[in-house]
Amino acid sequence: MTMRIAITGGGLGGLTLARILHLHGIDAVVYERDAHRAARSQGGMLDLHPETGQLALAEAGLTERFRSEARPEGAEHRVLDPTGRVLVHHTPEPGSFSGRPEIDRRVLRDLLLDSLPDETVAWGHRLTAATPRPGGGFTLTFHDGHRTECDLLVGADGARSVVRPLLTDVTSSHVFTLVEWNISDADHHHPALAELVGAGNLWCVGVNRLLAAQRLGDGNLRVGASLRTAADPDTYRDPGALREVFEGWDPRLTALIDAADGPPVPRGIEAVPTDTRWTNRPGVTLIGDAAHLMPPVGEGANQAMRDAAELARALVASPTDPDAAIRDYEAEMFARIRPVAEMSARVQAMMLSPTAAEDITRFFTVPVESGSNLTPPSPGCPETSGVRHTMPPCQWICSRVRRSVTSRRGWPGTSGCSAARRPSCPTTWRRCGSWRNTASSTSNTCRNTRATHS
């Protein structure tokens, strides 16, 4: 009998899982609450990391389509203080896909949806309950009373997952308040703001607050204010309340508030404990935010897609024993996620601290010795030295760390990349071909190189 797989949630993780399973001849149904793909905004843009999001797209056979839609120039990043002074300005190599190219969330979701048979996604199905069946599997109940059954249930249903309570009683807690709005066609209607934001990301960093903007592929700007506050988020539906928060900032920056298309939309951002895990239960598991909700510092979507790739790989390897596949997947996921979640929590706290401007500048530009609480060890980069220097020409980028570290023993997939342990710019750096990341090397032990630079 064919195993009935239900994936609750048609976000990036759920769709990636369905796509990879489809490539291997395994059918699954994605139950999505939205009525159709354009029912609501999908947010801003994200940078896909080689070792997580891009790896998952490679498993899904979608690398070329991703490259045709991604925007390497979107990796441009400016950090300013409240006076408008530029603290950091990173400009990526033109046209290069060797790092973390940006792509609009909507475009990436459409790319995944277009890769699936039409019947894969059941639109307008908001899950309200999942009830275990006596003989195994689950009965799923949706908001309109419709019911269906499945043998394997994958919760990809996000921060407020309905599936999560089947596995753990963990609860999320408030981290900060995020207020978002859009500015349409900035090049024509607000050219000064378009120039301020540039081709990618802008961060304006103050005390316990951050004003950020992204340029989307359609020319619109997605703007967000991150606030360390206990106030009711609905307070900030009034643009006047936002202006008060950023009173005294350079008018060129607060113009981002005045140019909003409509009222700002606030929401509380939450996270689960970084050590969240559960005892395996047959027939059910979680991926993405449902499994490991963390602050949004660039890892959430990437890790969700990596979850999907790992779970799909396990299911393909054990087609007659899905419970063994779930155990294998969860063991890998728990080990991979904890240091990433810890790092995300530290970075988020740094970004909304009283000394955020100084800390972020140092984070981007100053080499940091091992032991700094801003440079966590990285799974996949065993025994990392903690060396970080992200400003060109010394760009040492390693998997799963938001910026960069070096590794004594190399990265998975390379043939032994021995990287420098000292926080100084080497005279030679080489590209480890398997990861397309730049590694500084003090010897010629980094084989499989694609380029060198002296």
From TrEMBL:
Cofactor(s) for this UniProt protein: FAD
Binding site for NADPH: 40
GO molecular function, one term: FAD binding
GO biological process: response to antibiotic
Enzyme class, UniProt record, top EC level: oxidoreductase
Subcellular location: Cytoplasm
Listed Pfam families: FAD_binding_3
Top-level division of the source organism's lineage: Bacteria
SUPFAM superfamilies reported in the protein's UniProt record: FAD/NAD(P)-binding domain
Single GO cellular component term: cytoplasm
Reaction equation(s) it catalyzes: a tetracycline + NADPH + O2 + H(+) = an 11a-hydroxytetracycline + NADP(+) + H2O
Complex formation: Monomer.
Function: An FAD-requiring monooxygenase active on some tetracycline antibiotic derivatives, which leads to their inactivation. Hydroxylates carbon 11a of tetracycline and some analogs.
Family note: Belongs to the aromatic-ring hydroxylase family. TetX subfamily.
The protein's name in its UniProt record: Flavin-dependent monooxygenase
Organism for this UniProt entry: Stackebrandtia albiflava
Lineage: Bacteria, Bacillati, Actinomycetota, Actinomycetes, Glycomycetales
